Amino acid sequence: MMNPAMSRRRLLMGGSLFAGAAAVQSMTGGSIRLLNSAVAEIGAPAAPIRMSSNENPWGPSKLAIAAMEQAFDQSNLYGGIAGKIFELQSKIEGVPANCVTMSAGSGEILQAAGVLAALEPGSVVSPYPTFNQSVRAAEALGAEVINVPVGEDMHIDLKAMYAAIRPDTRMVYLCNPNNPIPSIIEKKELEDFVRTVSKDRLVFIDEAYYEYVDNPDFSSM
After folding, report:
1. Other beta carbons within 10 Å of 173
2. Beta-carbon contacts of residue 161 (< 8 Å; ≥ 6 apart)
3. Angle 8-42/133-140 helices, nearest 10 degrees?
4. What are the sequence ranges of the domains in the chain?
5. Which of 84, 176, 185 is nearest to 130 (CA)?
6. 10 vs 64, residue with greater confidence
7. Is residue 166 within 8 Å of 217, Cβ to Cβ?
8. Which of 32, 42, 79, 135 is the most buried (most CB within 10 A)?
């Protein structure tokens, strides 16, 4: 029996996400080609630290490698453990399991959020500069992007972002910590902003680099 939550609207949204992914697929290709051409021109060290990518410089732990080796004999089979992973993660985050999802890297979810924001005509408010993959996905599907410059201290200006919100704003995008500017939005300020703004629209927060933050005033949402 189909899950009651899998409504016709959800199915249509799924189709829209697929179409949106196709529409924005070319956006990442240009960046990769530019990077590859630069590497080909100037060369690359044997073990580069790629600051443009959120990578673990130490690689997987020995326990993770052992678990993968043990499971290798069944690698030809479907795992079927997604539900268990969702349940475990939901307990860690303290949210219902249906509020958890996974993707092959953050790009898939970032683009899906952009597509979701563009399902109806309107605008998206974003700081600038920032990591704008989600915003570009929305723009590719017709959303108007309202870029709000960071403050003189190079921090995201939440007051200016709030002032930029319009009645047709479908999503407010934040990157915390910001990228490429390594600044944070402090916990209390961000919580107050989200509680106010999310009453009327989606607030999407990309926390891709939160593991690197050692500022005690930072907290994951």
Report:
1. 26
2. 125, 127, 148, 172, 174, 193
3. 120
4. 105-212
5. 176
6. 64
7. no
8. 135
| CATH architecture, domain 105-212 | 3-Layer(aba) Sandwich (3.40)
Distances (CA, A) of 115 to 30, 87, 101, 110: 20, 26, 16, 9
Q: How far apart are CA 174 and CA 143, in angstroms?
A: 17
Q: What is the Cα–Cα distance from 65 to 60, expressed in whole angstroms?
A: 7
Kindly report the pTM of this predicted structure.
Answer: 0.74
How many whole angstroms separate alpha carbon 26 and alpha carbon 31? 9
What are the beta bridge partners of residue 146? 125
Q: What angle do CA 47, 35, 113 make, to 5 degrees?
A: 105
How many C-alpha atoms does 43 have within 13 Å on its Cβ side? 2
